[in-house]
């Protein structure tokens, strides 16, 4: 049986990040995912013409109502675990704070060959899931993530963000249904910059092996491109190492567009 049209989704709620970043994400996906796919933006403001669409013929861009705008802060993507909103077909979720550097085909091949309900990134700082790049195969386990949150099952738990909720639910109900991308496919910008400080050659080798750079915390890509405008996130982190102030700026500029 042929695979359904591949679906890639992102979430844009509130005003934390510019809409331009979402448009750039769609453009990066179009460049690095050559099979036909639809790119769906779930948002609390589904206004026509809000996001610019790439001209790629193999990408269909859709803007949909998240139908859960009351989800504040880092919890908006939990709504994606409700099949009533997203349907039952598998999808790839991508944060808007990513820079896609190379073909996404290896991720898609890994995802399609896996029977896991969710594939995510193994967090770089804590022994949990990082939810910046997720493959979701909707089933009873994934639905439980939304149901548990929506029904207030964990109302007495102070979760820092959505990934903590997802990890907690799977840890309780089906640890084996949650798995992780092979190490190196998705890299942390901050971890890579830290490695470059002591071993530039190793950092370059890791960079060449990955397909996605994740910008968690600070700096964000815009800050790396303009360090003098954002010294706290760049210059003051490494005041005696100017080569790190705009670390990978050329690479970011080439892909984040």
Q: Would you mind describing this structure in some detail?
A:
The structure is a single chain. The chain is 32% helix and 19% strand. It starts with 5 loop residues before the first strand and ends with a helix. It contains 9 helices and 10 strands. Strand 6 and strand 7 form a beta hairpin. A 7-stranded mixed sheet has the order 3-2-1-4-7-6-8, with helices on both faces. A 3-stranded mixed sheet has the order 5-10-9. The mean pLDDT is 92. Helix 4 packs across helix 5 and helix 6 runs antiparallel to helix 7. The chain is α/β, with parallel strands linked by helices and 257 residues long. The longest helix has 14 residues. It has 2 domains: 175 residues, Spore Coat Polysaccharide Biosynthesis Protein SpsA, Chain A; 69 residues, no CATH class.
Question: Strands, helices and their partners?
Answer:
Blueprint: E1 6-12, H1 19-32, E2 37-43, E3 59-65, H2 83-86, E4 91-94, E5 98-100, H3 105-113, E6 118-122, E7 129-136, H4 140-150, H5 162-173, E8 178-180, E9 186-188, H6 189-198, H7 200-209, E10 212-214, H8 221-225, H9 249-255
Parallel strand pairs: 1-2, 1-4, 2-3, 6-8, 9-10
Antiparallel strand pairs: 4-7, 5-10, 6-7
Helix pairs in contact: 4-5, 6-7
**How are strands sequenced across the largest beta sheet?**
3-2-1-4-7-6-8
| Proportion of residues in helical segments | 25-40%
Helix and strand content put the structural class at: alpha/beta
Q: How many β strands by DSSP?
A: 10
Please tell me the CATH architecture of the largest domain by its name. Alpha-Beta Complex
Give the count of helical stretches. 9
Report the β-strand fraction as a percent range: 15-25%
Oligomeric state of this protein: single chain
Rg computed from alpha carbons, rounded to a whole number of angstroms: 18 Å
- Profile the largest sheet: 7 strands, mixed
Name the average pLDDT: 92
Number of domains as seen in the coordinates: 2
CATH superfamily of the largest domain: Spore Coat Polysaccharide Biosynthesis Protein SpsA, Chain A
CATH topology of the largest domain: Spore Coat Polysaccharide Biosynthesis Protein SpsA, Chain A
Give the end-to-end Cα distance, rounded to a whole number of Å: 36 Å
Order of helices and strands: EHEEHEEHEEHHEEHHEHH
The first-level CATH class of the largest domain is given as: Alpha Beta
Shape: globular
